[in-house]
Design goal:
Layout: H1 23-32, H2 34-60, H3 63-73, H4 83-90, H5 94-102
Length: 104
């Protein structure tokens, strides 16, 4: 939306089909289809809630609890994700993640 290069990227670990939309086309959709604007607003609210939960977790939750929450939240896919990516997502080192996993 800022029309600048983003600092984030997608790193797919499985075959993935991705789509994109030009920002001008997106603005056109919002201008001409109120339901699209409403959908975007509701989606952003959901994303904001998720980000607030993540920030709070990173600041006030122990690494072991974060890993446990991650496993429960993503129980259907966590075993397919490389440990380095999980550690990065949790904001811990791979060594710390290995220690947590060894405690079981």
């Amino acid at each position: 939306m800022q029309q600048t290069t983003d600092i984030y990227y997608i790193d797919a670990i499985e075959d993935t089909e991705a789509y994109y939309i030009n920002v001008n086309d997106l603005v056109n959709l919002f201008d001409n289809f109120p339901e699209m604007e409403r959908y975007a607003r509701l989606s952003m609210g959901s994303i904001f809630g998720h980000l607030m939960e993540r920030i709070t977790s990173m600041r006030f939750t122990a690494a072991k609890e974060r890993y446990s929450h991650f496993k429960n939240t993503y129980s259907d896919i966590y075993h397919r994700i490389p440990l380095g990516m999980i550690a990065s997502y949790l904001g811990i080192t791979q060594e710390t993640l290995s220690r947590i996993r060894a405690e079981k």
